[in-house]
Amino acid sequence: MPGPDTPALTDLHPRLPSPVQEVADDRFTRHGIRLLLKRDDLIHPELVGNKWRKLAPNLTAAAGRTVVTFGGAYSNHLRATAAAGRLLGVPTVGVVRGQELADRPLNPSLARCAADGMRLHFVDRSTYRRKTEPETLAAVLRASDAEDAYVVPEGGSNVLAVRGCQALGEELRGHADVAAVACGTGGTLAGLAAGLAPDQRALGIPVLKGGFLTADIQALQAQAFGGSRGTWTLDDRFHFGGYARTAPALDAFAEDFEDHHGLPVERLYVAKLLYALVALAEEGAFPRGTTLAAVVTGRPFG
């Protein structure tokens, strides 16, 4: 359990609700569309964006126990969990996909995790795929010397996280017709849609290819709320090859957006979201008079 001098989440002074910023961009205004940015990247300097909303309720539930979670070599979620552990004095273990990475120098993302005190435990990709199976999970926890730990799933998406992200939708009530967010594991979209008003809808832009998120989001909402909540859709055309994949066209778009609006654009999630919204506006997917809110879930790393 936390000691008397252990910082609490409230001591970290999150900026909530996060600001809503309107930007004038001709790629939207010429179609009669207003673009708002929901600046979740400003919630906290180290627990950025939806990571705060997903991690905060889980860290409360962990009650000072070691937190074990999962991610790839460039996982934003691992970095956020490691930072939270350092800030709150909570031990953390990151189970990293790819046993071969254990014999290589740490990349900057994993090096940041280690610097924040996270113990890294590498597993082969076959084991990683089975990480939610009880026997496999138990073996991983034994091997990482964390059998009594509090486990947070990959990407942080569980019932507590989805309920935490419901506040994101509630904060956007009355601001926009469509609230759009980039999706990894789907937890943020599941909560966002649940928090919106009945006359609003949520749009998710998956950053992984595979088309599996619909069932995952339905399951998360069923677990968190007992059934479906809100109106939401996915458009899976803008993953640019999958997670952690980009392309010259995406980089050029992000640099142009940064130049025009002074907003550092994170490439793996936020750039794909904004690129998708421009493309959809060009396709006529939004009627004239629509107000779009794009959730800025993070900022560039490094």
Biggest β-sheet strands, sense, barrel: 6 strands, mixed
Strand order of the largest sheet: 1-2-10-7-8-9
> In angstroms, what is the radius of gyration?
19 Å
SSE order, one letter for each helix or strand: EHEHEHEHEHHEHEHEHEHHE
The number of E-state strands comes to: 10
Strand content: 15-25%
The CATH architecture classification of the largest domain is: 3-Layer(aba) Sandwich
Number of helices: 11
Shape field: globular
State the domain count.
2
Which residues form runs of ≥5 with pLDDT under 50?
none
Tell me, rounded to a whole number, the average pLDDT.
Answer: 94
- Kindly name the structural category: alpha/beta
What name does the CATH topology of the largest domain carry?
A: Rossmann fold
Helix content bin: 25-40%
- Name the CATH class of the largest domain: Alpha Beta
Question: What does this 3D model show about the protein?
Answer:
There is one protein chain. The chain is of the alpha/beta class and 302 residues long. The protein has two domains: 9-48 and 157-295, 3-Layer(aba) Sandwich (Rossmann fold); 66-148, Rossmann fold, CATH 3.40.50.1100. The protein contains eleven helices and ten strands. Helix 4 (108-115) links the parallel strand 4 and strand 5. Helix 7 (159-171) packs across helix 8 (187-195).
Comma- or semicolon-separated keywords:
Rossmann fold, 302 residues, globular, 6-stranded mixed beta sheet, alpha/beta
